[in-house]
Structures are given as structure tokens and as C-alpha cells.
Amino acid sequence: MLNGKLAKQITELLFLFKSGRRKLILFLIISNFLGSVYGWYYYRYQLAESQIVFWPLITDCPNASLFFTISAVLIVLNLRNDAFLFFSSTNMLKYGIWTMTILIFHRDFFFAPERLLLYSGIFVTHFIIFIESFLISAEIEKVSPQAIMISTAWFLLNDFSDYFLNTHPYIPEKSVELIAVFTFILSFTSIYAVMKINEFLRMLRV
Hints:
Elements: H1 2-14, H2 22-42, H3 44-48, H4 55-58, H5 60-76, H6 82-105, H7 107-110, H8 116-137, H9 145-164, H10 176-205
Helix pairs in contact: 2-5, 5-6, 5-8, 6-8, 6-9, 6-10, 9-10
């Protein structure tokens, strides 16, 4: 009984945009936009030291939450674009996982007593971004080759910039080469994962 109820609640959450829960959707739109604003503020020192042309390649996570905001608005207004929804979902999945992984990998630094509260909050918000990627993926009607190409090109550009032009977020330099390999692999696995997630969710929707 409990399992059945829990499964129903999870399904309703996954298909949030079809649930009619407009207050929750509006809350997510506003909170993600505010999260983007805070994220740009968080990167303020790195942005100040970088050329403007690199700014969109530095603020990966704020971009991901902004993409959710835009996607949600498009869905609510019935102006959805499958290529953009796919692009948004892959970004949210990738950078949600990336951030949580890096925080754990460098836990001695990020979860030191003087940083514990800040980065515990950042960990939770990026877990939410990861979950929200499923909500957007559930709204994609068709994953086109063009959508896959756009996400792939964006990720490769971003990864090249991060680890060859040194625009990755400020993190401890320990094992940065290993993190670079992980990031490139995550780019491709995130795209594949969203394709499979969307395929599974479309089967549930039928």
C-alpha cells in the first residue's frame, strides 16, 4: 500500500507540468531564477578576472538553473521546443552530478567547518537541479539528432574551455587532470542518460 502510494507520488512529481500544480511550478520557476542570480554572484570574482567572452562558459550551474526557468516558462505557455528542453535537461543532469561529485571528492576543503553550511546548501540545491532534469526530460516529445548535436557541441566547447583554457570553477588543483577526464566522460553519459530517461518516461506516459 505504502509502496503503491509512493510510486504514485513519484510519478506525479515526474510529470509535474501535467499535474496542474501551478503554485509549485511557479515556485520552481522563481526559485531557479533566483538560484541563477545567486550563482552569478558566487562566480563574481572569477568573472571579474575573466574576459566577457568566457562568462557563459564559466557559470555552468547558474546557466543550468536558468535553462530550467526558461524551459518551465515555455512549457507553461505551450511554446515548448524539444531541442531546447533536451539541451536544458542534459545541462541540469551533468552539472548537478558534476557539482555533487566534486564537493564529495574535495570534501576536506568544501566541507571544512568554516565552509560546511555554504557547501551543504550548494550540495542540496544541485541535487535538486539533478532531480529537475527529469521533470524537463518528461516533457520532451522527440529527441532529434539536431538536439543531440547541439548539446554535444556545447559540452565539448565548455569542457575544452574549462580544462584547456582554465575556465573551470575555482576548485583545489589536486587531481585536476582526473576531474577533466571525468567531466568529458560525464558530458557524453549525461546526453545518453537523458535520451534513455526520456524514452522510459514516454513509456510511462502512454
